[in-house]
Amino acid sequence: MDQPRFIQRLPKIELHLHIEGTLEPEMMFELAQRNQIALPYTTPEEVKAAYQFTNLQSFLDIYYQAANVLIHEQDFYDLTWAYLLRCQQDNVVHSEIFFDPQTHTARGIDFDTVINGIYRALKDGREQLAISSQIIMCFLRHLDEESAFSTLEQALKHKNKIIAVGLDSSELGHPPEKFARVFQKALEEGFLTVAHAGEEGPVSNIYDSLELLKVSRIDHGVRCADDEQLVNALAKSQMPLTVCPLSNTKLKVFETMREHNIVDLLQRGLCVTINSDDPAYFGGYMTDNFVAVADSLIVSNQDLAQFSRNAINASFISDSEKQRLHRYLESFLVGEASFS
Ligand code: HPA
Ligand code: ZN
Protein backbone atom coordinates (compact mmCIF):
# COMPACT_ATOMS: atom_id res chain seq x y z
CA MET A 1 0.00 0.00 0.00
CA ASP A 2 1.30 3.44 -0.83
CA GLN A 3 2.59 5.46 2.12
CA PRO A 4 0.12 8.41 2.02
CA ARG A 5 -2.80 5.98 2.15
CA PHE A 6 -1.17 4.01 4.96
CA ILE A 7 -0.62 7.25 6.90
CA GLN A 8 -4.18 8.41 6.44
CA ARG A 9 -5.55 5.13 7.77
CA LEU A 10 -3.00 4.63 10.56
CA PRO A 11 -4.64 4.99 14.00
CA LYS A 12 -3.15 8.10 15.59
CA ILE A 13 -2.92 9.54 19.07
CA GLU A 14 -2.35 13.28 19.54
CA LEU A 15 -0.57 14.50 22.71
CA HIS A 16 0.42 18.07 21.82
CA LEU A 17 -2.42 20.22 20.55
CA HIS A 18 -3.39 23.72 21.67
CA ILE A 19 -7.12 24.04 21.17
CA GLU A 20 -6.71 27.79 20.54
CA GLY A 21 -4.34 26.78 17.73
CA THR A 22 -7.14 25.03 15.85
CA LEU A 23 -8.97 28.30 15.16
CA GLU A 24 -9.19 28.30 11.36
CA PRO A 25 -9.43 31.71 9.64
CA GLU A 26 -12.97 30.92 8.44
CA MET A 27 -14.14 30.26 12.00
CA MET A 28 -12.26 33.35 13.19
CA PHE A 29 -14.42 35.43 10.83
CA GLU A 30 -17.60 33.59 11.78
CA LEU A 31 -17.01 34.15 15.51
CA ALA A 32 -15.89 37.77 14.99
CA GLN A 33 -19.19 38.45 13.27
CA ARG A 34 -21.26 36.52 15.83
CA ASN A 35 -19.57 38.36 18.74
CA GLN A 36 -19.19 41.77 17.09
CA ILE A 37 -15.40 41.78 17.37
CA ALA A 38 -13.32 43.84 14.94
CA LEU A 39 -10.53 41.97 13.14
CA PRO A 40 -7.42 43.54 11.64
CA TYR A 41 -8.08 41.53 8.44
CA THR A 42 -10.78 41.73 5.76
CA THR A 43 -10.79 38.12 4.46
CA PRO A 44 -9.70 34.66 5.63
CA GLU A 45 -7.17 34.70 2.74
CA GLU A 46 -5.60 37.82 4.19
CA VAL A 47 -5.31 36.06 7.55
CA LYS A 48 -3.58 33.07 5.95
CA ALA A 49 -1.16 35.38 4.14
CA ALA A 50 -0.16 36.87 7.51
CA TYR A 51 1.03 33.47 8.78
CA GLN A 52 4.68 33.95 7.86
CA PHE A 53 6.62 33.41 11.06
CA THR A 54 10.28 33.96 11.85
CA ASN A 55 10.30 32.45 15.34
CA LEU A 56 8.00 31.43 18.20
CA GLN A 57 7.26 34.98 19.37
CA SER A 58 6.19 36.19 15.91
CA PHE A 59 3.58 33.42 15.94
CA LEU A 60 2.43 33.98 19.54
CA ASP A 61 1.69 37.68 18.87
CA ILE A 62 -0.82 36.77 16.13
CA TYR A 63 -2.16 33.73 17.96
CA TYR A 64 -3.10 35.57 21.19
CA GLN A 65 -4.78 38.32 19.23
CA ALA A 66 -6.91 35.83 17.26
CA ALA A 67 -8.18 34.26 20.50
CA ASN A 68 -10.10 37.50 21.18
CA VAL A 69 -13.02 36.21 19.08
CA LEU A 70 -13.67 33.43 21.64
CA ILE A 71 -16.21 34.78 24.14
CA HIS A 72 -19.06 32.39 24.95
CA GLU A 73 -19.13 28.78 26.10
CA GLN A 74 -20.62 27.87 22.71
CA ASP A 75 -17.58 29.39 20.95
CA PHE A 76 -15.26 27.07 22.86
CA TYR A 77 -17.61 24.19 22.12
CA ASP A 78 -17.66 24.97 18.38
CA LEU A 79 -13.87 25.33 18.25
CA THR A 80 -13.35 21.98 19.97
CA TRP A 81 -16.02 20.20 17.95
CA ALA A 82 -14.47 21.38 14.65
CA TYR A 83 -11.13 19.96 15.84
CA LEU A 84 -12.76 16.62 16.70
CA LEU A 85 -14.26 16.38 13.22
CA ARG A 86 -10.70 16.84 11.84
CA CYS A 87 -9.55 14.07 14.20
CA GLN A 88 -12.18 11.80 12.73
CA GLN A 89 -10.94 12.48 9.17
CA ASP A 90 -7.36 11.75 10.24
CA ASN A 91 -8.18 8.64 12.26
CA VAL A 92 -7.06 10.23 15.52
CA VAL A 93 -8.57 7.95 18.14
CA HIS A 94 -7.33 9.70 21.28
CA SER A 95 -6.28 13.31 21.91
CA GLU A 96 -4.90 15.16 24.92
CA ILE A 97 -5.53 18.85 24.38
CA PHE A 98 -3.98 21.94 25.93
CA PHE A 99 -5.89 25.05 26.76
CA ASP A 100 -4.51 28.39 28.00
CA PRO A 101 -6.97 29.78 30.58
CA GLN A 102 -4.97 33.00 31.11
CA THR A 103 -5.40 33.98 27.43
CA HIS A 104 -9.11 34.20 28.19
CA THR A 105 -9.38 35.18 31.87
CA ALA A 106 -7.10 38.17 31.16
CA ARG A 107 -9.86 39.41 28.79
CA GLY A 108 -12.60 38.97 31.37
CA ILE A 109 -13.82 35.55 30.19
CA ASP A 110 -14.61 33.19 33.06
CA PHE A 111 -12.46 30.11 33.54
CA ASP A 112 -15.70 28.10 33.78
CA THR A 113 -16.95 29.35 30.40
CA VAL A 114 -13.77 28.14 28.72
CA ILE A 115 -13.49 24.72 30.31
CA ASN A 116 -17.19 23.93 30.19
CA GLY A 117 -17.33 24.56 26.42
CA ILE A 118 -14.26 22.45 25.73
CA TYR A 119 -15.34 19.67 28.08
CA ARG A 120 -18.86 19.40 26.65
CA ALA A 121 -17.50 19.05 23.09
CA LEU A 122 -15.02 16.38 24.21
CA LYS A 123 -17.82 14.47 25.93
CA ASP A 124 -19.86 14.57 22.71
CA GLY A 125 -16.72 13.49 20.84
CA ARG A 126 -16.44 10.43 23.05
CA GLU A 127 -20.11 9.54 22.64
CA GLN A 128 -20.71 10.41 18.99
CA LEU A 129 -17.28 9.98 17.36
CA ALA A 130 -15.65 7.40 19.69
CA ILE A 131 -12.66 9.72 20.18
CA SER A 132 -11.31 9.61 23.74
CA SER A 133 -9.60 12.63 25.21
CA GLN A 134 -8.00 14.39 28.16
CA ILE A 135 -7.55 18.07 29.01
CA ILE A 136 -4.24 19.68 30.04
CA MET A 137 -4.24 23.22 31.44
CA CYS A 138 -1.19 25.29 30.49
CA PHE A 139 0.30 28.24 32.35
CA LEU A 140 1.60 31.07 30.15
CA ARG A 141 5.27 31.34 31.05
CA HIS A 142 5.58 35.01 30.06
CA LEU A 143 3.16 35.84 32.91
CA ASP A 144 4.21 35.76 36.55
CA GLU A 145 4.07 33.05 39.20
CA GLU A 146 1.22 34.79 41.02
CA SER A 147 -1.01 34.62 37.94
CA ALA A 148 -0.17 30.92 37.56
CA PHE A 149 -1.09 30.28 41.22
CA SER A 150 -4.40 32.08 40.77
CA THR A 151 -5.11 30.02 37.63
CA LEU A 152 -4.36 26.80 39.52
CA GLU A 153 -6.74 27.92 42.24
CA GLN A 154 -9.54 28.40 39.67
CA ALA A 155 -8.84 24.95 38.24
CA LEU A 156 -9.33 23.12 41.53
CA LYS A 157 -13.10 22.84 41.26
CA HIS A 158 -12.60 21.32 37.77
CA LYS A 159 -10.06 18.74 38.94
CA ASN A 160 -12.18 15.93 37.56
CA LYS A 161 -11.88 17.40 34.04
CA ILE A 162 -8.14 18.23 33.99
CA ILE A 163 -5.51 15.48 33.99
CA ALA A 164 -2.35 17.60 33.96
CA VAL A 165 -0.84 21.06 33.99
CA GLY A 166 1.64 22.29 31.38
CA LEU A 167 3.80 25.27 30.53
CA ASP A 168 3.74 27.10 27.20
CA SER A 169 4.31 30.49 25.49
CA SER A 170 7.70 32.26 25.20
CA GLU A 171 10.42 29.82 26.27
CA LEU A 172 13.39 32.18 25.98
CA GLY A 173 13.81 34.21 29.18
CA HIS A 174 11.16 32.20 31.09
CA PRO A 175 12.91 29.07 32.41
CA PRO A 176 11.17 26.25 34.30
CA GLU A 177 12.40 27.37 37.74
CA LYS A 178 10.05 30.37 37.54
CA PHE A 179 7.19 27.86 37.97
CA ALA A 180 8.78 25.26 40.28
CA ARG A 181 6.54 26.20 43.24
CA VAL A 182 3.28 26.27 41.33
CA PHE A 183 4.09 22.91 39.72
CA GLN A 184 4.89 21.52 43.18
CA LYS A 185 1.45 22.63 44.35
CA ALA A 186 -0.18 21.14 41.22
CA LEU A 187 1.54 17.82 41.92
CA GLU A 188 0.30 17.90 45.53
CA GLU A 189 -3.22 18.50 44.20
CA GLY A 190 -2.91 15.33 42.10
CA PHE A 191 -2.25 16.76 38.63
CA LEU A 192 0.35 15.24 36.32
CA THR A 193 2.81 17.72 34.79
CA VAL A 194 4.26 18.41 31.35
CA ALA A 195 6.21 21.39 29.96
CA HIS A 196 7.30 22.87 26.65
CA ALA A 197 11.09 22.69 26.79
CA GLY A 198 13.90 22.58 24.26
CA GLU A 199 11.77 24.00 21.44
CA GLU A 200 13.75 27.24 21.07
CA GLY A 201 15.29 27.16 24.52
CA PRO A 202 18.47 25.41 25.71
CA VAL A 203 18.86 21.82 26.95
CA SER A 204 19.00 23.16 30.52
CA ASN A 205 15.25 23.77 30.19
CA ILE A 206 14.75 20.05 29.51
CA TYR A 207 16.88 19.03 32.51
CA ASP A 208 15.08 21.56 34.75
CA SER A 209 11.63 20.49 33.57
CA LEU A 210 12.51 16.92 34.54
CA GLU A 211 14.08 17.81 37.87
CA LEU A 212 12.12 20.83 39.11
CA LEU A 213 8.72 20.36 37.44
CA LYS A 214 8.73 16.52 37.63
CA VAL A 215 7.22 16.28 34.15
CA SER A 216 5.82 13.05 32.71
CA ARG A 217 6.47 14.25 29.13
CA ILE A 218 8.55 16.94 27.44
CA ASP A 219 6.67 19.00 24.83
CA HIS A 220 8.90 19.49 21.76
CA GLY A 221 12.29 18.66 23.35
CA VAL A 222 14.07 18.51 19.97
CA ARG A 223 17.02 20.54 21.27
CA CYS A 224 17.97 17.48 23.38
CA ALA A 225 20.12 16.53 20.38
CA ASP A 226 22.63 19.19 21.50
CA ASP A 227 23.55 16.96 24.47
CA GLU A 228 24.59 13.36 23.83
CA GLN A 229 24.25 12.41 27.50
CA LEU A 230 20.70 13.72 27.61
CA VAL A 231 19.75 11.83 24.45
CA ASN A 232 21.02 8.61 26.04
CA ALA A 233 19.18 9.33 29.30
CA LEU A 234 15.91 10.04 27.43
CA ALA A 235 16.27 6.79 25.51
CA LYS A 236 16.93 4.84 28.71
CA SER A 237 14.06 6.38 30.68
CA GLN A 238 11.65 6.36 27.70
CA MET A 239 10.67 9.89 28.71
CA PRO A 240 8.27 10.89 25.92
CA LEU A 241 8.89 13.86 23.61
CA THR A 242 5.79 15.30 21.91
CA VAL A 243 7.37 16.55 18.69
CA CYS A 244 5.53 18.81 16.21
CA PRO A 245 7.25 18.66 12.81
CA LEU A 246 5.25 21.29 10.85
CA SER A 247 5.34 23.66 13.82
CA ASN A 248 9.14 23.31 14.03
CA THR A 249 9.69 24.20 10.37
CA LYS A 250 7.09 27.02 10.38
CA LEU A 251 8.76 28.58 13.46
CA LYS A 252 12.28 27.98 12.07
CA VAL A 253 13.41 25.61 14.79
CA PHE A 254 14.62 23.67 11.73
CA GLU A 255 15.06 25.48 8.40
CA THR A 256 13.62 22.58 6.40
CA MET A 257 11.98 19.24 7.18
CA ARG A 258 15.02 17.45 5.73
CA GLU A 259 17.01 18.83 8.67
CA HIS A 260 14.48 17.70 11.29
CA ASN A 261 15.86 15.22 13.81
CA ILE A 262 12.63 13.34 14.63
CA VAL A 263 13.48 10.16 12.71
CA ASP A 264 17.03 10.18 14.03
CA LEU A 265 15.69 10.40 17.60
CA LEU A 266 13.21 7.57 16.89
CA GLN A 267 15.99 5.37 15.57
CA ARG A 268 18.10 6.15 18.63
CA GLY A 269 15.31 4.58 20.70
CA LEU A 270 13.63 7.68 22.17
CA CYS A 271 9.91 7.69 22.85
CA VAL A 272 9.16 10.35 20.22
CA THR A 273 5.66 11.08 18.95
CA ILE A 274 4.20 13.17 16.09
CA ASN A 275 1.73 15.97 16.89
CA SER A 276 0.22 19.05 15.24
CA ASP A 277 0.66 21.79 17.94
CA ASP A 278 -1.36 24.63 16.32
CA PRO A 279 -2.64 23.09 13.08
CA ALA A 280 -4.62 26.12 11.86
CA TYR A 281 -1.39 28.14 11.85
CA PHE A 282 1.28 25.65 10.83
CA GLY A 283 -0.13 24.04 7.71
CA GLY A 284 -1.85 20.92 8.87
CA TYR A 285 -3.36 18.41 11.22
CA MET A 286 -2.05 14.96 12.23
CA THR A 287 -2.06 13.28 8.81
CA ASP A 288 -0.34 16.32 7.28
CA ASN A 289 2.40 16.11 9.93
CA PHE A 290 3.02 12.40 9.29
CA VAL A 291 3.03 13.01 5.51
CA ALA A 292 5.45 15.94 5.86
CA VAL A 293 7.87 13.70 7.79
CA ALA A 294 7.52 10.81 5.33
CA ASP A 295 7.99 13.12 2.32
CA SER A 296 11.28 14.58 3.51
CA LEU A 297 12.91 11.90 5.65
CA ILE A 298 13.50 8.19 5.17
CA VAL A 299 10.90 6.32 7.23
CA SER A 300 9.30 2.88 6.84
CA ASN A 301 5.66 2.18 7.63
CA GLN A 302 6.96 0.31 10.70
CA ASP A 303 8.67 3.52 11.86
CA LEU A 304 5.44 5.46 11.32
CA ALA A 305 3.50 2.88 13.33
CA GLN A 306 6.11 3.21 16.09
CA PHE A 307 5.17 6.87 16.51
CA SER A 308 1.62 5.72 17.29
CA ARG A 309 2.86 2.97 19.65
CA ASN A 310 4.99 5.53 21.47
CA ALA A 311 2.05 7.91 21.76
CA ILE A 312 -0.14 5.20 23.31
CA ASN A 313 2.59 4.45 25.85
CA ALA A 314 3.04 8.18 26.57
CA SER A 315 -0.66 8.96 26.96
CA PHE A 316 -2.40 9.77 30.24
CA ILE A 317 -4.92 6.92 30.13
CA SER A 318 -5.32 3.75 32.17
CA ASP A 319 -3.31 0.63 31.40
CA SER A 320 -6.44 -1.12 30.18
CA GLU A 321 -7.20 1.77 27.78
CA LYS A 322 -3.61 1.61 26.54
CA GLN A 323 -3.98 -2.13 25.94
CA ARG A 324 -7.19 -1.51 24.01
CA LEU A 325 -5.48 1.07 21.76
CA HIS A 326 -2.45 -1.18 21.26
CA ARG A 327 -4.72 -4.05 20.18
CA TYR A 328 -6.58 -1.73 17.79
CA LEU A 329 -3.32 -0.46 16.28
CA GLU A 330 -1.75 -3.91 15.93
CA SER A 331 -4.87 -5.37 14.31
CA PHE A 332 -4.83 -2.49 11.82
CA LEU A 333 -1.16 -3.30 11.04
CA VAL A 334 -1.87 -7.02 10.56
CA GLY A 335 -4.70 -6.11 8.16
CA GLU A 336 -2.45 -3.75 6.21
CA ALA A 337 0.30 -6.38 5.96
CA SER A 338 -2.11 -8.88 4.44
CA PHE A 339 -3.00 -6.35 1.71
CA SER A 340 0.52 -5.42 0.67
N1 HPA B 1 5.34 26.81 21.94
C1 HPA B 1 5.05 27.54 23.00
N2 HPA B 1 3.84 28.00 23.25
C2 HPA B 1 2.85 27.71 22.41
C3 HPA B 1 3.09 26.95 21.29
C4 HPA B 1 4.40 26.46 21.04
O1 HPA B 1 4.71 25.76 20.06
N3 HPA B 1 1.90 26.84 20.65
C5 HPA B 1 0.99 27.51 21.38
N4 HPA B 1 1.57 28.05 22.44
ZN1 ZN C 1 2.90 23.64 21.80
Automatic annotation (TrEMBL):
This enzyme's EC code(s): 3.5.4.2
One GO term (biological process): adenine catabolic process
InterPro entries per record: A_deaminase_dom, ADE, Ado/ade_deaminase, Metal_Hydrolase
Cofactor(s) listed in the protein's UniProt record: Zn(2+)
Catalytic reaction list: adenine + H2O + H(+) = hypoxanthine + NH4(+)
NCBIfam families: aden_deam, PRK09358.1-6
Family: Belongs to the metallo-dependent hydrolases superfamily. Adenosine and AMP deaminases family. Adenine deaminase type 2 subfamily.
Protein name: Adenine deaminase
Organism: Vibrio galatheae
Lineage per the UniProt record: Bacteria, Pseudomonadati, Pseudomonadota, Gammaproteobacteria, Vibrionales
